[in-house]
Amino acid sequence: MVFKEDDAWYAAGLEFNIVEAGDSPQEALVLLFEATQGYLESAYKIKARPNILNQKPDPEYETMWNSLQDKKGETRKQNIFAAGRLNLVRKNLEFVPA
After folding, report:
1. Which has more confidence, 61 or 20?
2. How many Cβ atoms from other residues are within 10 Å of residue 28's Cβ?
3. Residue 53 has pLDDT above 70, yes or no
4. Is residue 31 pLDDT above 90, yes or no?
5. Contact 65, 58 (CB under 8 A)
6. pLDDT mean over 42-46
7. Residues with Cβ < 8 Å from 47, sequence gap 6 or more?
């Protein structure tokens, strides 16, 4: 989910409880992808248990997500740039949108 709050754009990966900020929605999203990639590579490297890959999101972001899902098809608020699901597939140590 990518949204604007005050003068900054934020991208939140709810399943990993990772939030990145940027000057534009695109920058925030790129930073989120990089942070997620590093997180997943580290989890793989240390052979972490799967429970760290499915974390409970911050209540503020979960509420925002649920609100967006409830209003699907309606005009979204101006501060939301994008929201949806993205599957990541591991291929040659790179994570690519599926």
Report:
1. 20
2. 24
3. yes
4. yes
5. no
6. 89
7. none
Residues 6+ apart with CB under 8 A from 87: 97, 98
Return the HEC string of the chain.
CEEEECCEEEEEECCCCEEEEECCHHHHHHHHHHHHHHHHHHHHHCCCCHHHHCCCCCHHHHHHHHHHHHCCCCCCCCCEEECCCCCEEEECCEEEEC
Judge whether residue 24 has pLDDT over 90. Answer: yes
Q: pTM here?
A: 0.74
Whole-number Cα distances in Å, 89 to 1, 34, 43, 83, 94 = 19, 14, 15, 19, 8
